[in-house]
Amino acid sequence: MSTTSLTEAPPKHDEIEVSIFGAGIGECIVVHLGDAAWMVVDSCQDSGLPVALTYLASIGVAADAIKHVVVTHWHDDHIKGAARVFEAAVNAALHCSAALNREEFKRLIKANATPHVDTGTGELEQLLRTLKARTSGRAASMGPQWTSARQLVARTPRAQIWALSPSPGTLSLAQHELARLLPVEGPKRNVVAQKANALAVVLYIDFGGVSVLLGSDLEKSANPAVGWTAVVTAAQGVGARPSSIVKVAHHGSTTADDVEIWNALVTADVHAVTTPFQSSGLPRDTDKVRIRERTANAYFTAESSGRKVVSHDMRRIIEATAKSLRVLGARMGHVRLRFSAEAKSSSEIKAELRNGAFR
Amino acid sequence: MSAAIAKIDVSTATAGTDEVASTLSANVPRLALAATGLPTLDTPEGLSIWHDRPDEETIAGSDSPQVTFASDRESSAQSSKISPLALTTSSAQDQYQVRRRWRGVVQEISEDSFDAEIFDQDHADSPREAAEFSMEDVDLGDLSLVQPGAVFYWMVGYVTTRGTRRTFSEIRFRRLPVWTRAELAKLEEPSDVDDLFD
User: Fold this and answer.
1) Which residue of A105, A266, B104, B177 is 20 to 30 Å from A231, comparing CA positions?
2) CB nearest B130 (choices: A143, A189, A279)
3) B129-183: per-residue pLDDT in tens?
4) All structural domains of chain B with their residue ranges
5) Considering CB atoms only, which of B106, B107, B113 is closest to A323?
6) In CATH, what class is B95-173?
7) How far apart are CA A141 and CA A143, in angstroms?
8) ipTM of the predicted assembly exceeds 0.85
9) What is the C-alpha to C-alpha distance for residues B102 and B86, in angstroms, rounded to an integer?
């Protein structure tokens, strides 16, 4: 494994790439599936533009090479700019968590149109409207692909992409998870849905030799029918092999750190990439230590802490009121992992770090 | 809705907006608001800050005149960048100078504090910020409003009283209208949103 500065050239047709982007808030994963076909998983923005589009343009790849757009869940830090990505990706299929294909989620979208209410569903609604406009008059199969565990999301000449969540147990619980976000009689307020991580899509990509696990924001659960225990079961069900690359779930938090991920789903020398979520200060220093103990190949796309407010004339009174105050956001860190489609092990993966990403 | 009229000195504001005036008035100490007939000085559009619409919201607080304002969406459409240095208001005794102001959304609540994301009201392109506030800094009358998703305003600045300047910082929560049964029922009705999932 080597760590070098990034070079701006697209991967060869027989070269696989997994690029993981993350600033202080938000993450996006761009995957070259081989043969000039790309997949974008989640979205975040850099300088107001979706980083996936900016990056692909920078290496000379047109957006129409994106064949799959996956929205693992609808939280702001995973979906911002996804509608623009999908709008540009005119040849792409859209994949969303099957847990969202429910009456309760439709109501959340409808509620978003009510004055004084922000349910955080605007970006997903825009995505679905773009898809609707694109597929109007075409076959029903062009509609959104509602994804759940053990489902083959896509197959390409060099890759099989499987969903390992949401599990059947999660789909049963989704009604409750979403219903508790719905408005009830009483004052209007925004929806802060950060707790609904159980509905997220975890992906497993099998390239024949090397495989990849993208953990989204899925967390552990005491209920073995949901969370990471259910993912381990699903992985066994699809015959998944230990992955050599993992996007660490939920920004490296302890709530997502199931020991079975490390024991059963990834290799001992896995390339583990964590994106921060500065609003919660994730990953914490203890999380970084723990992840580094799991593997020698641990990467972080950006620092976990926001910058302190710079000194100015009102600093004293500001700090007297706020117990802490951090400016969120950092440079858009980028961890790029490339390997031959014929690669068999982690040692054949080349890691490149840039824009503040670090080991 | 209580129809209150207060006028705010926005002496050099580049745009007269409901949001500026209402936010300012909502966050300065109540004593200032209680003063009647605050002069409007050099206000290009001659601001007044009351509305008489059914969907109005109010800033929490019971012992001051209720200042009402239109929804954020309406306000932001009208608003333009305004230097915080330009925002001042005065009563017979006090002059307020707002130096920074944020709109916050409560994210998480713990026993004695809450976390919020806050957005600079005067610089839309500012990076997101996160802050933790002590419950002690929330007005007693606002405590019941501190819920995930609740919106508040935080302003800091100077207040000058008889030539003596001191700082002030105030957090005030929005008191939003309640969901009506008709609105809730509408969420159950078929709409074009349902078609998006086919």
Assistant:
1) A105
2) A279
3) 888 888 888 999 999 899 888 999 998 888 899 889 888 888 999 888 899 999 9
4) 9-91, 95-173
5) B113
6) mainly beta
7) 5
8) no
9) 16
